[in-house]
Structure formats: C-alpha cells, structure tokens
Write a structure and sequence with these properties.
By secondary structure, this protein is an alpha+beta fold. About 25% of the residues lie in helices and about 25% in strands. It has ten helices and 17 strands. It has helices at about 50-55, 55-60, 95-100, 180-185, 195-200, 220-225, 245-260, 280-295, 310, 330-340, and strands at about 20-25, 35, 40, 45, 70-75, 80-85, 105, 110-115, 125-130, 135-140, 150-155, 160-165, 175-180, 205-210, 230-235, 265-270, 305. Strands 2, 5, 7, 8, 10 and 12 form a six-stranded antiparallel β-sheet that branches. It has a five-stranded parallel β-sheet with strand order 14-13-15-16-17, with helices on both faces. It has a four-stranded antiparallel β-sheet with strand order 1-11-6-9, with no helix packed on it. Helix 7 (about 245-260) links the parallel strand 15 and strand 16. The two termini are about 35 Å apart.
Length: about 350
C-alpha cells in the first residue's frame, strides 16, 4: 500500500501511543472498506451535501453526523490505534459521549472495545487496544452517532498483514429513515443501535438516514431515497411528524412513491416504540397501519408493519433514558422485533 507520509510530511501522523513500529493508514484507501458514509468536501457524510441542503436546515445540520458509518478490514497486527479528526462534537446531558462521539470496535463480530473520547474532546482524539498476540482478525470499527468526522487513520504494526474484509451478505444496503431514535440517540456506543445489532446478527449492510427532529418525509428526501439501490427500506419517522395531519399527508405518499420505483422491495413500517400512547400518538399509529392495510388490500406481498408496543416488548417501561430515546436495552428490544421480520424475508 502506498505510504503518503514518505512523500508528504503533512500526512505524518503524530501520536501519543508508545509504540515505535506504528504505521498509519488512511481508511479511504484499499484494502480498507467504508460502509454507511462517504467522503465529500473534507468530511464523511451520510448523503450528498447539496441534497441535504435542499431538504431542510435540520437535515443539512445532521447529514454529516456519521451514524451508521463503519470501516472494515482484516489484519494480523497485535494492536490497533485510531486517530480521528473531528470538527463537530455532540454533547447533551442524556446521551453518553461514547455514543455521540465515540468509536467502538468488533473483532470477528464480537465486541472488543469502545475507544472512549476524552471528556474535553475538541477536534478529535486517539484510541488504542493491544491484543497481546499476532493473529488475523476481521475488524469492524463503528463511527460516532451524533458527531462529524473529517479524517480517520488506523495505526497498525508496521509489518502487519492488511486485507479486505469479506463483503456483507446483502450486496445492497438496507436503508433506514427516521427520527433521532433511528439516528441512534441515546445508545451508549455506536454498535448498540438497532441497525448495528441487526447488521451483526444477519451480516447485513445498511445506511442510517435518521435525522434528529428533522425526519418529515419531504419530497426532496423521498426523491433521494428513491435514488438509492437498496435491499430493504424501513420507515420509522412518526416521532418527528409535528401532528397527525402531517403524517397522514406524507406517510402513504412516501410509501407509494418508493413502491412505484421498487415494486418488489421489502418495506417495513414501524410506529413509535412506546407502550402507552396519548390520543394523537394513537392516531398516528392508526395512520401508519392504514398505509400498511391499504398496501395489503392492493395486493402488496412485501410490506410489513411493526407496532411500536412490540418494539418495547423486551424492556417494557425500562427501555429509555427520557421516555423517548432508547437505552441499549431499548435498542436491543427494537432489534429483536425487527429480527422477526428480517428472518422471514429474502434480501
């Protein structure tokens, strides 16, 4: 692999990790493989910057949060270092910094470590794990859920083998669209969102299009989602509908627009993960189920509905931090309900 630091000292990475044989690599180059995000105009994004700007101010502000971003590779290095450069850090009182701004790592599908950011993080940080011995491992590193990443470098032992990880089982990603819950608030770390749990369970790639407070099924967003080559689509945005009337005017319209483009695509609709609904929330649930029932009436054989109460089945009243955003237990319960659907569809 080409080592740019030998010809451009600006790419020589400074580190406080006490290893004399570290060699740093940009993840944008093979054999590293990036999923869920892409580099554009100096940072990683979940959708094109111009498209996000045309959707809404909220989507534009959040589209470069790297929720769902992953980098995968195989190495026999006995240690791994990450060096992240970040220019936007999310700090809110009910959300662990390890989830909003941290990276976590899986080895051969098993959780290994969270690279926890320092409490005073400003523009990035570095993390380190020493495995203690040299052997080949398939590594997945999950990006932060609510912060921006400009660059990520991986540090490995200088003579380590680096190879491409095996591709995901689905050649086209699942696309999830929805609210702050979809984006990942308030998982304790990136690998605990319901999408990440499903990804590991079924070996599925995915794109997270959750936008905190900003998922309103705008025409520009629907147009963008229709442009994506996907293996399944999950609609999960009623939390952000300002009222039942808005949801009624957009939900079936969004479904039918995507169904027109993709006649055979599995489409899953979910209502908010909450057991006890007020009058308007109950009306919203009925609107979503009506979209589903109308699709069945029209002969649609690849549409699915998950009631929000079922999403909370494993956690009941103990699955949120604020009666809205899931804890890890809440996300696990959501993933469990979705898994029952994914286990019975072919993607």
């Amino acid at each position: 692999m080409f080592d740019i630091s030998k010809v451009d000292t600006n790419f020589s990475i400074k580190t406080n990790i006490d290893k004399k044989d570290i060699k740093f690599y940009k993840i944008d180059e093979a054999p590293f493989k990036i999923y869920g995000v892409f580099k554009e105009n100096g940072k990683y994004r979940r959708m094109p910057e111009l498209v996000a700007k045309n959707v809404s101010d909220g989507v534009y502000a959040l589209h470069s949060n790297t929720s769902g971003g992953r980098v995968r590779f195989v190495t026999d290095s006995p240690y791994i270092v990450i060096k992240a450069f970040m220019d936007s850090i999310c700090r809110v009182p009910h959300f662990a910094l390890t989830g909003s701004a941290g990276f976590d790592m899986y080895e051969d599908g098993r959780y290994v470590i969270t690279f926890a950011p320092p409490i005073d993080i400003k523009d990035g940080y570095e993390g380190f794990i020493d495995f203690g011995k040299k052997r080949e491992r398939e590594i997945t590193i999950n990006f932060p859920l609510y912060s921006d990443v400009n660059e990520l470098f991986i540090g490995l032992q200088e003579d380590a083998v680096i190879k491409e990880a095996k591709p995901y089982k689905n050649s086209k990603p699942i696309v999830y669209y929805g609210s702050s819950i979809t984006q990942g608030g308030c998982a304790s770390r990136p690998g605990m969102t319901y999408q990440a749990i499903i990804s590991r369970k079924f070996d599925y790639d995915f794109i997270n299009l959750g936008f905190s407070g900003s998922a309103l099924a705008e025409d520009e967003m629907v147009k963008y989602i229709k442009s994506l080559d996907m293996s399944a689509f999950v609609m999960d945005y009623d939390h952000n509908a300002p009222n039942a009337e808005h949801l009624k005017n957009t939900h079936e319209k969004m479904f039918r627009s995507i169904r027109e483009k993709y006649p055979d695509l599995p489409i899953i609709m979910m209502s908010r993960p909450k057991r006890f609904l007020n009058v308007e929330e109950a009306e919203m649930r009925c609107i979503i189920e009506t979209t589903y029932r109308n699709a069945l009436r029209d002969g649609d054989k690849n549409v699915y509905f998950i009631d929000g109460e079922k999403l909370t089945k494993l956690c009941e009243d103990s699955g949120t931090v604020d009666n809205c955003h899931p804890t890890d237990l809440g996300f696990f319960s959501m993933a469990n309900a979705l898994s029952e659907v994914f286990a019975n569809i072919n993607i």
